[in-house]
Amino acid sequence: MVAGSRLVSGALFLSFVIAPLTVACHAYADDSSATPVSDQAEPDVESSLDQLKESVSLFPYNESLRIKLAHAYDSIGQRQLKRKQFDEAAESFDHARELIPGRQEYGIRRGIALYLAKRYDEAAYELESDRSSGGDNALLLSYLGLVRYDTGNLAEALDAWDRALVLDPTNKTLRELAAKARRELAVESRMEKGYRSMFEIAYDEGSQSDLADAVLKVLESAFNKVGADLFHYPSVRVPVILYTKKDYRSVTAGPEWSGGLYDGKIRLPIGGAAEITPMLRGVLFHEYTHVVVRELTKGNCPSWLNEGLAEVEGRTEFDPPLTALERAAKAGAYLPFTELEKSLASLNAKDALLAYQQGYAMVRFMISAYGWHKVREVLVNLGTGMTIEAAIAKTFKDYGLDYQGIVQEWQAEAQKKFEGRN
Fold first, then answer.
1. 241 or 41: whose pLDDT is higher?
2. Is the same domain home to 163 and 211?
């Protein structure tokens, strides 16, 4: 099994979370003159909305008023996207489109909002309709590809991205998306698939069906346990892919110390595993936690918190010693949390091990001292687009604590725990 062959000892599971493909397409959207997703709306647009609505109701055929109202809805929708209020943004863009039906960009923006809200069927219908009425558009095709990708239709996702590249051949983001999908399709097209409650799984044909069923049963347990802790249950099926080690490296191009990753799909190099062990149970709990954290934070979560929570849940099933953390505590050689906010994929194996153990200990302290509900509150605040500094400050305002204050409390606790040990 994957975790059994990890390169460093004392970590439950050195997986890593990469930025979902959505982020890459956001970067593309921000650079697109056709339909920018920005926060550049007029400061008073929301306060003037009611007045514009009343004017249009009095003069419904006044084109100038309709354009102004549509622009107001569009500006508000873009603000809502920035705030990660995806359902509300979809509604705002729909109002704008109703006022000026011929403006394809309003439909595209609505499709993007629906996709980000995980309303995949509606997003696909919207984007296909916009494509039929207004023709191909690189941004439209990039998000249509994301819808297809997230719903398991790799061939259709690749087709959409290849078509987008014809329209925008120099776009590096699109080229990377297409290349990734092409690598995955080469491996996953020969896999078998299975389904159970909120999960769908793909695995090597004929070789891992019993293990795949056992993996799904463990993931159901994780669904219930993590859901109870963080009071959140995903509403769409979670894709899980079991690879050989060779195929895993080919598809993910992850760091050598990686034993799995979550990028919108749980990807694990199971290798020759024949049964579920406590270590593999821990791996599955760890990876599933990333699913819940991503939904609560809408992808806006520092790595130390994301991995720390995943380690907390995974270690309920398999709990190796915190040797790297103990050494760091005795030497006062912690990794700065501000440096653990970005992806950990670039770390070497030694630093990665400490980063995971440090994230675990920090989150475990927050839970013990302040409760799961406060940790969840931090995640929800992050989900509104807050920085980690702002999210922690808001959550712990009544305690007079900020980001640095929480870190200092944890360090004092860790010092007490490890001092005096030989």
1. 241
2. no
